[in-house]
Design a protein that fits this description.
The protein is mostly helical. It has a single domain, classed as Cytochrome Bc1 Complex, Chain D, domain 2, CATH 1.10.760. The chain has 5 helices and no strands. The chain is globular and about 55 Å long. The termini are far apart.
């Protein structure tokens, strides 16, 4: 009988996963509204770019959010990171 609650928990947990998926369209919009006021997208493709992995990308987006006083929600930060990674960096998400 312990199996039924475990199966129910797994079903509920797994069915909620799409709710946490990043919204690339939102990330692109937020990026356009905030990030491009300071720099162009050339920064992401420059040979001398400082972002070398997903962790440094996340740290930089959070640093910019804080420095500019944007106060994005965590989901918005994830959306921007996902957008940048998808369109420019292509780091493995491990």
């Amino acid at each position: 009988m312990k199996l039924i609650p475990s199966i129910a928990f797994c079903f509920v947990f797994l069915s909620s996963l799409p709710l946490f998926a990043a919204d690339i369209k939102n990330g692109k919009e937020l990026h356009g509204e905030s990030c491009l006021s300071c720099h162009t997208t050339a920064k992401y493709t420059a040979e001398t770019r400082s972002i070398k992995d997903l962790a440094s990308l996340e740290a930089q987006v959070k640093r910019c959010d804080y420095s500019l006083g944007i106060q994005w929600f965590d989901e918005d930060i994830t959306d921007v990171i996902t957008y940048l990674n998808n369109d420019y960096y292509q780091f493995n998400e491990e």
